[in-house]
Automatic annotation (TrEMBL):
<dbReference type="InterPro" id="IPR003695">
    <property type="entry name" value="Ppx_GppA_N"/>
</dbReference>
<dbReference type="GO" id="GO:0016462">
    <property type="term" value="F:pyrophosphatase activity"/>
</dbReference>
<protein>
    <submittedName>
        <fullName>Exopolyphosphatase</fullName>
    </submittedName>
</protein>
<feature type="region of interest" description="Disordered">
    <location>
        <begin position="1"/>
        <end position="25"/>
    </location>
</feature>
<dbReference type="InterPro" id="IPR043129">
    <property type="entry name" value="ATPase_NBD"/>
</dbReference>
<feature type="compositionally biased region" description="Pro residues">
    <location>
        <begin position="16"/>
        <end position="25"/>
    </location>
</feature>
<dbReference type="InterPro" id="IPR050273">
    <property type="entry name" value="GppA/Ppx_hydrolase"/>
</dbReference>
<feature type="domain" description="Ppx/GppA phosphatase N-terminal">
    <location>
        <begin position="44"/>
        <end position="359"/>
    </location>
</feature>
<dbReference type="Pfam" id="PF02541">
    <property type="entry name" value="Ppx-GppA"/>
</dbReference>
Amino acid sequence: MAPRRPNGAGAFPIPVESPAPKPPDPAELYAALDLGTNSCRMLIAQPKGSGFHVVDSFSKSVQLGSGLERTGRLSRSSMARTVQALRICQQKLKRNKVNRMRLVTTEACRRAKNARDFIRQVRRETGMMLEVIQPEEEARLAVISCAPLVSTKTDQLLVVDIGGGSTELVWIDLSSVPARDRPRAIMRLHAGFHPPESPFPAAKVVDWISVPLGVATLRDQFSDVQDDAARFALMSWFFEENLIDFAPYKDEQVREGFQIVGTSGTVTTVAASHLGLKRYDRTKVDGLRMTSDQIDRVIRRYLDLGPQGRRRDPRIGEDRQALIMSGAAILQALLRCWPTDRLSVADRGLREGLLYAQMSADGVLEDGPF
């Protein structure tokens, strides 16, 4: 006998209506665009407490600096790729009705002979006015983007931003700042590395340097070396030679109270490899702490894999296998100089720094813990 059909079977469920999320007020939105040697990235966000909430974002590898090391110029194909990406960014800005923004470009446009022509082309084809920022501001923005990751136990801080065309290092002395105020003291550097007198204890910038070697430019300089391990060793020692003018370079740093914060695709990729992630997860990577020994093990594994093995690794991939080794060479040089038990991984950088700086200047961030 067939089972009886219960009463009401097949009836449509009563819909439960939930209100559509309220769109953000355009008057509260800020945008930050970072056009680097390798990537074009943008964030649109609104202030929230002592941080911000991301409303929209964009990230794409455009390889703007492709061939720059050889010719000193931006190529037509790289400019065309970049303009195409910037059109998408412009559409997002228009759709969100953003009025407060900073759209910056860095090392590739600082070095290229035809950078002005490229910036005019971008203005003509997208309506966006790119601003070429100088190395000191790039370093400063990288520093303040990492403020939430600074430990209250840190006396000496080294912030490292490994970019496509350059690497910025900033050494900061926090020993005279009360422990609980140290992250906030980093944020106050948005006014400059040597801000005016303030009633608050200040973070002291001991020294900073912008080395014109990033993952793309360092790779290009040693592209003629065929042996994978030899190329890696040469890149690492060459980068270390370029640190000779950095004041803390020769000073042995005790590990206690010393922290490095690394912000770059290199550092986040190494962290993902250390965790054994099958798919990249920002929530697991951002803020992760690693030791010099853990990082060294990951780099040794990259060398053991070789170019083909790195291409097949899901955390690296076809596009980044050569770039990860030049970035790892930079990272190894830094840890040879300053071994640490606390390298904090920052999945953040120039875009976040630009947003923090704009919001801090406007006084829209709450004064509290990050």
